[in-house]
Amino acid sequence: MEKNRLLGAPALSLLTAGLLFCLYSCSLPRILVLNDPLTPQDHINLGVTYERSGEFDQALKEYEKASRALPVAYLYMGNVLFQKKEFPKAEECYREAIDRTGDPGAYNNLAWLYYSTGENLGEAEKLARKAVELAPDREEFQDTWQKIREKTRPNDQITITK
After folding, report:
1. Residue pair 106/78 in contact by the 8 Å Cβ criterion
2. CA–CA dist 52, 76 (Å, integer)
3. Mean per-residue pLDDT, 100-118
4. Is 65 helix (H, G, I), strand (E, B) or coil?
5. Which of 69, 63, 50 minimizes the C-alpha distance to 90?
6. What is the mean pLDDT of residues 140-158?
7. What is the DSSP code string of 70-83?
8. Are 152 and 121 in contact, with CB atoms under 8 Å apart?
9. Class of the 102-162 domain?
10. Number of neighbouring beta carbons within 10 Å of residue 38
11. What's the rounded Cα separation, in Å, for the pair 75 and 105?
12. What residues does each domain of the chain span?
């Protein structure tokens, strides 16, 4: 006697294969590796463009991407955060730039942040002096140091030699 079958062997095989394919394609996570066509310097340049147009959040994203390979990007991030008046975050970025690069601009900008907020003026003076030592020809660094000294020592005469 013949059994009552709804599907034959070929149809059952196709159905099983289809179900397995659906389960396989839906259940496993996919890892996509996207290649960034921009170099870290391109991200810095793009961030500067965003920053100049007032798009600070976009600039920060670009600087963060660049910071993975270019530590000087922390200086740029600090500058944007300073403009956004996010002073604690700006301070962290400047400190990171100092630690990773020793860039005199990071010393100067952290000193200016302290000067602007009126906090840590003793530390600001040390940072500004260090910036001038590292880059004595940069007039803006000398100006920062002079302004901080005027605030911390109003009766002292300041002489900056090159």
Report:
1. yes
2. 12
3. 97
4. helix
5. 63
6. 85
7. -TTHHHHHHHHHHH
8. yes
9. mainly alpha
10. 13
11. 8
12. 37-86, 102-162
